[in-house]
Amino acid sequence: MTGTIYLIFFTFVVTIYKVNPYKRRNLPKAGKLTIHTMTEKEYNDCVTQYADNVFRYLLKNLRHEEDAKDIVQGAFEKLWINREKVITDTAKSYLFTIAYHLMIDHTRKYKRVVYKETIEEGKLTTDVSSSSRRLLDEALSRLNEIQRSLILLKDYEGYKYDEIATITGLSESQVKVYLHRARLQLRAYIVQPENII
């Protein structure tokens, strides 16, 4: 009897969510299964709450403001188009996942790795914080795309390992290993004698 109920629930979840049943996901519990279309107000709330975070993440990765704005717009456009399939509670994760994939597509298409510094009104400051920021930016630019994305998601945006795994499509253990290796590379670059402030 219990097996039959599980099979019916499993079939219901696979049908409603149109998911691959063999891929691990965080699906709602049987008692909390409510599906509704995201309303315009909920969508606007998502824009208000998450647009700056997604933009900051993309800007740190791409180092090009206009491209980051375009990808943010594309991510929110996809959210609006797929609002019937997105659970409101998971909208932030959905946005970062879409933004991550759009960013990867963009970098593969344009192979833009050049960092453009912006100097405000011709003023160049050489204080310790700006040189530290420059050193960190240089260190981050030496990482590959995946490592840089993982560092930014974990250390800048504060995501948990399982959330990062969902966003990037990696397993949680892969996220931990890649983050560890990226941090080792950052440390090795930053402590080089010519980089010590």
Q: End-to-end distance, in Å?
A: 68 Å
CA radius of gyration is 20 Å
Q: In the CATH hierarchy, what is the architecture of the largest domain at level 2?
A: Orthogonal Bundle
By CATH reckoning, the class of the largest domain would read Mainly Alpha
What is the CATH topology descriptor of the largest domain? Answer: Rna Polymerase Sigma Factor, Chain: A
Number of domains: 3
**Overall pLDDT level:** 77
Task: Give the percentage of residues in beta strands.
Answer: under 5%
Unreliable runs? 1-25, 112-128
Largest sheet: none
**Structural category:** mainly alpha
What is the number of helices? 8
Spell out the helices and strands N to C.
HHHHHHHH
Helix content: 55-70%
Number of strands: 0
Shape: elongated
How would you summarize the topology of this molecule?
Blueprint: H1 2-17, H2 40-62, H3 65-81, H4 91-110, H5 128-141, H6 145-156, H7 161-168, H8 172-190
Helix pairs in contact: 2-3, 2-4, 3-4, 4-7, 5-8, 6-8, 7-8
Keywords:
Rna Polymerase Sigma Factor, Chain: A, about 200 residues, mainly alpha, Arc Repressor Mutant, subunit A
Descriptive report:
By secondary structure, the chain is mainly α. It has three domains: 1-35, no CATH class; 38-113, Rna Polymerase Sigma Factor, Chain: A; 126-197, Orthogonal Bundle (Arc Repressor Mutant, subunit A), CATH 1.10.10. It contains eight helices and no strands. It has helices at residues 2-17, 40-62, 65-81, 91-110, 128-141, 145-156, 161-168, 172-190. The longest helix is centred in the first third of the chain and has 23 residues, at 40-62. It starts with a helix and ends in a 7-residue tail after the last helix.
